[in-house]
Amino acid sequence: MQYLEKIFQPYGSIPENFIPQTAKFTSKYLINGKLGEWHGDLHQVISPIFTTEDEEHGHIVGAYPKMGTTEALAALEAAVKAYNHGYGEWPSMSIGERINCMKKFIFMMKQQREEIARLLMWEIGKSLTDSYKEFDRTIEYIKDTIEALKDLDRNSSRFTISEGILAQIRRAPLGVVLCMGPFNYPLNETFTTLIPALIMGNTILFKPPKLGVLLLTPLLNAFHEAFPAGVVNTIYGRGKEVITPIMESGKVDVLAFIGSSKVADLLKKEHPHPHRLKCVLGLDAKNPAIILKDADIDTAVKETLLGSLSFNGQRCTALKIIFVHESIVETYLKKLSEAVENLKIGLPWEDGVNITPLAEAGKPDYLAELISDAVSKGASIVNPNGGKRYKSLFFPAILRNVNDSMNIYREEQFGPVIPVVTFKNVNEPLNYVIGSNYGQQASIFGKDSGQIAHLIDILVNQVCRVNINAQCQRGPDIFPFTGRKDSAEGTLSVSDALRVFSIRTLVATKETDLNKSILTEIVKDNKSKFLNTDFIF
Q1: How far is CA 128 from CA 61, 131, 190, in A?
Q2: What is the Cα–Cα distance from 23 to 61, expressed in whole angstroms?
Q3: pLDDT band at 37 (very low <50, low <70, confident <90, very high)
Q4: For 346-360, how does the pLDDT look when each residue is reduced to its tens digit (9 = 90+)?
Q5: Are 128 and 114 in contact, with CB atoms under 8 Å apart?
Q6: Are residues 32 and 331 in contact, defined by beta-carbon separation less than 8 angstroms?
Q7: CA–CA dist 90, 203 (Å, integer)
Q8: Record: fold of 287-482
Q9: How far is Cα 500 from Cα 488, in angstroms, rounded to an integer?
Q10: Rounded to whole angstroms, how far apart are CA atoms 458 and 430?
Q11: Percent of the chain whose pLDDT exceeds 70
Q12: Which three-class secondary structure string do you get for 223-269?
């Protein structure tokens, strides 16, 4: 595919407004309320975007501190001190006071939209359009979280009387939270755990993903200015050197991690008191589409194309295996192949670009190996340009005649390869879902309401979201986002996340005149931040 070699440009020809301005080489970090200047070794950030001057690897975007155990434990102690068994300034604040801090953060964050979008392009190859979407969606998520917290607090503002016991039930923070997000949505997915954990009164240790690190730099000052000292602390470096000692300390109360189940298992095992560690995990998935014989093929093609290849298929919610009834498979494959071949592959800032450079350095080789394995066992590539590649560019490949002897059948490819399995009896895809280690979502395409209802009743006990004539996806953010089996632990949505990072706590007393008088004085004179009937508008 000769034109792939012509996509990368000389660095000097790239418009300046598409090039990051502030994070070329950063040595800033935030620990214990201080924006420190790092004087040690730096880790280079290599972009998946090559320029014509780059031969062996992508363009060097910048660098970040290569921290070690000493700095990691200092960050941990800062978070522990800021929480102070719940006596710290942040967990002791009223809900209204925390909301005001979060609003200040939003105001400062908005000013960094352009720079963060540029960094998303250069660090992970995300298109400019999708980079703006990720930023804007994150801002909306924070605003929605604030409104959800107001609703939660309003519902908790009254007293409950039952069996002679008078009580007020509210939610309290859990302690120190370690937040680790994924590279594919390094801002949005990370903030879907960090923001609710933070606003509920917990203190935060924040380690950016291995790819998508520099985009944190423009936000360091916002974290510094908006929140008290030690409430948000950043950690950089290799996991064994910075995360292992933190987990082994036993001082982390909540692990919020989005990534692979293997890494999550290792992290949990490092904690000396696993029964005291609460885990909020978004993990692997191999979401299937089941295309029935009466499906609207145009709808199925449109949705499976988007579901399989949005951001190069690098999403946990992506459709990663397609089951098509034998009676329509030829028509479906023909139309899907045409749609894939019409996708534009190019650089992230180009108008209308669909496929961009892959973020992980070894990903093109891995995808090529999956295809080679499948072809050696009877599969074939459907679309003419499928699997052609150059450096970090990889043109999407549709594989037909995929079966259970192939690695692609069960491995989560996390990239632009679409395996298609032909089925005769609908029990074939159902058995696949039942036998899978994963249980996040599934999509059904068809028109027969009776058959769809039958599939729904089976699938809802295997996955946590069933999509009808639509791709798998996370949003809207008010919907619960979770999974069964090895796909998740805990539930995330705007409201669920507030609950998962807190615990129900109550103050109770017998309904006597003395006790009622005590409670009345506390509430009337606003003596307690927990026990009150304030109504937040």
Answers
A1: 16, 5, 19
A2: 8
A3: confident
A4: 999 999 999 999 999
A5: no
A6: no
A7: 8
A8: Aldehyde Dehydrogenase; Chain A, domain 2 (3.40.309)
A9: 13
A10: 8
A11: 99
A12: HHHHCCCCCEEECCCCHHHHHHHHHHCCCCCEEEEECCHHHHHHHHH
Q: What is the pTM of this model?
A: 0.95
CA separation for the pair 411, 431 (Å, rounded): 17
Report the C-alpha gap between 10 and 428 in whole angstroms.
50
Encoded tokens for 141: 């998520």
Tell me which residue of 430, 435, 437, 428 sits closest to 484, measured CA to CA: 437
Using the predicted structure, report yes or no on whether residue 243 has a pLDDT greater than 60.
yes
Return the half-sphere exposure (C-beta side, CA atoms, 13 A cut-off) of residue 536. 21
Report the C-alpha gap between 484 and 258 in whole angstroms.
15
Alpha helices (H) along 111-219: 113-124, 128-155, 188-199
Is the distance from CB of 322 to CB of 304 less than 8 angstroms? Answer: yes
Quote the CA–CA distance of 68 and 493 in Å, as a whole number. 34
379, two tokens: 């599969």
Report how far apart, in Å, the C-alpha atoms of 227 and of each of 77, 202, 237 are: 17, 12, 24
Q: Are strands 34-37 and 28-31 parallel, antiparallel or unpaired?
A: antiparallel
User: Which two three-digit tokens encode residue 20?
Assistant: 């990051």
Pick the closest to residue 400 from 332, 475, 476 (CA basis). 332
Q: Class of 7-282 per CATH? A: alpha beta
Instruction: Name, in order, each residue with C-beta under 8 angstroms of 178's C-beta and a sequence gap of 6 or more.
Output: 205, 207, 243, 246, 247, 252, 254, 255, 256, 257
Q: Give buried/exposed letters for 240-253 (b at 16+ CB in 10 A, else e).
A: eebbbbbbebebbb
Residue 213 structure tokens: 């690190």
Contact yes or no for 8/346 (Cβ under 8 A)? no
Give the pair of three-digit tokens for residue 8: 């990368």
- With bands split at pLDDT 50, 70 and 90, how would you rate the model's confidence at 2? low
- For the segment 51-74, what is each residue's pLDDT rounded down to a tens digit? 988 878 899 998 899 999 999 999
Chain-wide mean pLDDT for the chain?
95
The tokens describing 325, both together, are 């009834």
pLDDT, residue 535, reads: 79
345 CB-contact burial (10 Å; exposed 0-12 / middle 13-18 / buried 19+): buried
Going from N- to C-terminal start, the domains of the chain cover 7-282, 287-482
Is residue 16 scored above 70 in pLDDT? Answer: yes
For residue 38, the one-letter residue type is W
Tokens of 37: 């200047």
Alpha helix segments (H runs only) across 327-468:
329-341, 363-376, 427-435, 449-459
